[in-house]
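Reviewer 2 asked us to include a model.

Predict the structure of this chain.
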Amino acid sequence: MSLKKSGYLFCVLFLSSINIANAVTEVDFIYIGDSEHDSLLGVKQGIDEANLQGEFLGQKYNLEIVSKEKIEEYDFSKYIAILTSLDSKQLISLAKQLNNTPVFNLTDESDDLRRNCIANILHIAPSNKMKSDALKQLEIKKPASKANAQAWHYSFVKFAARDLNKRFKKNFQVKMNDHSWAGWAAVKMTSDTVARTQITSPDDMLKYLKNELTFDGQKGSDMNFRVTGQLRQLIILVENDKIITEAPIRGIAKPPSLDSLGILEC
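Predicted model (structure tokens):
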């Protein structure tokens, strides 16, 4: 090969390497619901953290916010996931229009919604039955205990929860709660999957989340989704705004696992 041709090839390869290095994969989320809802703050926290990680991986995460009144105006095909703070009726209607896209339920705790087992609804919010089962376990351990069952608490410190609470408080000057944790968790599990697998299509993402996900979520257990679409997770038990324990409660929960909480089957 002549020197001239060699130089030309080098330039082509060099420029190609620059283009590859500068290539950025764009990943789009959409949030549907009240723009003042706590869940949206959690979503924003998740997007911020995903973009910090994405700087090193050539990934950029975008968020669009839409009110529930404008759902009919949108083409949702470009979004890798839809994040919602909708009631059951609105959520079901939306999910049936988008049966190959993950639709995250961040707020509705209805047991009937889980029993419906709609294939593309992923429930981050724990169900009413998960919370009541947690309280029943506590009642056995500590009778007459007047406690609240929660998905999250701002004073939770184990499993790197302290760091998450600090980051959230620094960003928004409010304490992380159940709904803001749910928003963060939905984005986190999705963006981590993109980083790990390079999945960028909604249908492939839905399959992965339903069948292969293991997610810590700063709760210390490998969480994944049941056939009902519910995320398995521990429940934090709080009395007088102080954490007293977490369910499943060791020695009481039957089975002694996350499946002692909530609805297991359709």
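The radius of gyration is 21 Å. Residues 3-22 form the longest helix (20 residues). We have added this to the supplementary material.
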